[in-house]
Amino acid sequence: MEKIIFTGGGSGGHVMPAITLIKKIQATTEWQVSYVGGRDSIERSLIAEYDVCYKPITTGKLRRYFSFQNFIDIFKVGIGLVQSFFYFLFKSPRTLVFATGGFVSVPVVIAAKLTGKKVFIHEQTSRVGLANKICSKFADKIFVSFEESLNYFPKNKSFHFGYPLRDECYEREIHRSHFKDFSLKEEKPLLFLTGGGNGSLLLNNLVKNDLDELLKSYRVIHQVGKAFISEFEALGSTDYLPVAFVGSEIIDIMKSAEIIISRAGAGTVCELMALKKRSVLIPLKIAQKNEQFHNAMEAKNKLNSLVLSEDELAELSILKVIGKFSKTSKEEQQYDFPNGTEQILKAIKAVLE
């Protein structure tokens, strides 16, 4: 039986494109699907929802700056490389490894190449993360979400196929009427805030500081992150739903929301662009190569979304942010945002079938 092994993690943004592909593969093929990721990681918790064999390995973070932790983590990466090598050693030569970025993917990709496996990688952002830059040296094919990203990879094996998006992003219908007993269809407008899969202290405080005033005008779904959920659950009410993480329901929530305030991770930006949903984007200041800023600018240029820096946000209340957003032009460019799912699956099938 043909085998495909996914890897990638460290944040939800690296895992969600893999999940989109896994769901499509499971629905349309009989391939055996596995996943290699960290032991106590966001990828493990997300993949647990699907019928996928999960192989945990030891992982270490790759940093572009000096840190004593680098000396420890280099040994962790080495252990992960050895674990991955022996995991792949007796796998069929027809096994394909598909990496979606994040530090966990580096030892997996290297081990896959050393054991003669085909390697595909996908870069979600408009700039290139360090992990995928390393992985690209060992990859047979490289897929990117944004055309601009082609400049960072060898042209002979790089393809602009787009981000693997769920079919719902291209459908007008809202499939769910509720999320965790919280109605998505009420007269009072819905505001959706997300700091990404790990949450954002900055956005969380923005909400907490003016929550009572905010709830006079809006119903709010707030993805706060696992580290903050216990604090915010105490603030929950009929009009305010704090959650640690939003999974597959996020597309219906985005469709239902009148206003979205979000970090500018590649996955979120691509989903918003496919939905043609103007929003308020706050790029993560410390993101590698300022990648979230460049992601956000893609949405600004196409949708006229409002982009605010963290420094600008520090001077504003959430009510002023909403006021600023309401004054921006709703004019948008005519464009089609490509869904990479089908083209990526076609490339996978060419190897496995």
TrEMBL record:
What membrane topology term does the record carry? Peripheral membrane protein
**What residues bind UDP-N-acetyl-alpha-D-glucosamine, as annotated?**
11-13, 166, 292
Question: Glycosyl transferase family 28 C-terminal domain location, by residue?
Answer: 191-334
What keywords are assigned to this protein?
Cell cycle, Cell division, Cell membrane, Cell shape, Cell wall biogenesis/degradation, Glycosyltransferase, Membrane, Peptidoglycan synthesis, Transferase
Q: Which domain of life is it from?
A: Bacteria
- Extract one GO BP annotation from the record: peptidoglycan biosynthetic process
Record's GO cellular component terms? plasma membrane
Enumerate the Gene3D superfamilies for this protein.
Glycogen Phosphorylase B
Report the EC code(s) recorded for this entry: 2.4.1.227
UniProt GO molecular function: UDP-N-acetyl-D-glucosamine:N-acetylmuramoyl-L-alanyl-D-glutamyl-meso-2,6-diaminopimelyl-D-alanyl-D-alanine-diphosphoundecaprenol 4-beta-N-acetylglucosaminlytransferase activity; undecaprenyldiphospho-muramoylpentapeptide beta-N-acetylglucosaminyltransferase activity
The annotated pathway is: Cell wall biogenesis; peptidoglycan biosynthesis
In this chain the Glycosyltransferase family 28 N-terminal domain maps to: 4-143
What does the similarity note say? Belongs to the glycosyltransferase 28 family. MurG subfamily.
Question: What is the name attached to this protein's record?
Answer: UDP-N-acetylglucosamine--N-acetylmuramyl-(pentapeptide) pyrophosphoryl-undecaprenol N-acetylglucosamine transferase
Organism listed in the record: Halobacteriovorax marinus
Gene for this protein?
murG
